[in-house]
Design brief:
Shape: extended
Structural class: mainly alpha
Distance between the termini: 18 Å
Number of helices: 3
Largest sheet: 2 strands, antiparallel
Strand order of the largest sheet: 1-2
Radius of gyration: 17 Å
Number of strands: 2
Helix content: 40-55%
């Protein structure tokens, strides 16, 4: 069993800053809980095309969008510390 090392304080600080920025943002045109999103198709994290309608046929869907560059930066930092990026 492997143990994970603590994340560098500078990374934790950057994450806290980004969380605060997000919390302060306003999204007046965002969908509300139970609103229905228009169908769309996008690649998932592995490059496979995923269509919203197909996923809804299987049950409820939670959409998570992230900026790839920030994820890549965290991966590099974690690898430099000897920890594995977990999905």
């Amino acid at each position: 069993m492997t143990t994970s090392q603590p994340i560098d304080a500078s990374i934790e600080g950057r994450m806290a800053e980004q969380q605060a920025r997000l919390a302060a943002m306003s999204f007046p045109h965002a969908l509300a809980v139970v609103d229905r999103a228009a169908d769309f198709e996008l690649p998932n994290a592995h490059g496979r095309r995923i269509r919203l309608a197909d996923q809804l046929e299987r049950g409820s869907v939670v959409l998570i969008f992230y900026r790839l560059l920030e994820v890549a930066e965290l991966q590099v930092a974690e690898r430099a510390q000897g920890t594995a990026f977990r999905r």
